[in-house]
Amino acid sequence: MLGSVGALALAVPVVFYIVTQGYTYHSLDSVPSAQVALVLGASVVGKNILSPILQQRVDAAILLYRAHKVSKILMSGDNATLSYDEVEPVRRYLLFAGVAPQDIFLDHAGFDTYSSMYRAHTVFDVSSMIITSQSFHLPRAIFIARALNIETYGFTAPGGGWFNTLREIPASDKAFFDVLFARIPRYLGAQFPITSDGQSTWQ
Does a structural domain hold residue 8? Predict the structure, then answer.
């Protein structure tokens, strides 16, 4: 019995990987165009320094923006408390990189990958996007987004490691049940269409 449960738990991320490979791109030239690059949150150091994984995700989004593959960048991360904020440091980083203020959208309630995808669709009215994240994370993210009827592609950022890959096993299992039961995130709030001015999402 335990062996069957374990096999099922391992099978979910494998299935995610198989069904999303046709939507995952490693080359800037080959990735399709979309409305927005979605950057998924990761840790920050203090209040200003992006972790290597987060910086690599943001840098990948900047590449897409400069190549005119997307016209907007949506940063979705955890800003649950005043003392922890994944999105504001990214806003400053994007501005320093030359991204136009009106093209930067902030989602302060992207507490997990499912919430980020759900909110991209319902709060920001995104119909097509390119997710920038590492290879260990993209299958889960793309699977969720496409299950929510968003035209979604993935653009691989550098970085990863075995620890993060192993973490994807329980994370993928949770995502499967989130999709299966159509979980509605706790925080939704006002709508900010991705076609509008992103500065309206800044706090």
Answer: no
Domain presence at residue 134: yes
How far apart, in whole angstroms, are the C-alpha atoms of residue 3 and residue 37? 40
Domain hosting residue 70, numbered range = 24-186
Q: What is the DSSP letter of 197?
A: -
Give dist(CA 122, CA 92) in Å, integer: 26
Task: Please give the model's pTM, rounded to 2 decimal places.
Answer: 0.91
Whichever domain contains 48, its CATH number is 3.40.50.620
Condensed to tens digits (0 to 9), the pLDDT of residues 165-194 reads 677 788 888 988 998 999 998 888 889 999
Domain count, the chain: 1
Q: Are 31 and 155 in contact (CB under 8 A)?
A: yes
CB-CB neighbours of 5 under 10 Å:
9
Average pLDDT over residues 88-114: 94
Distances in whole angstroms, Cα of residue 29 to Cα of each of 26, 64, 93: 9, 10, 24
pLDDT tens readout for residues 144-171: 999 999 999 999 999 876 666 677 788 8
User: Does position 86 have pLDDT exceeding 50, yes or no?
Assistant: yes
Q: Which amino acid is at 61?
A: A
The token pair that represents 77 in the structure block: 């991360």
On whether residue 51 sits in a domain, the answer given is: yes
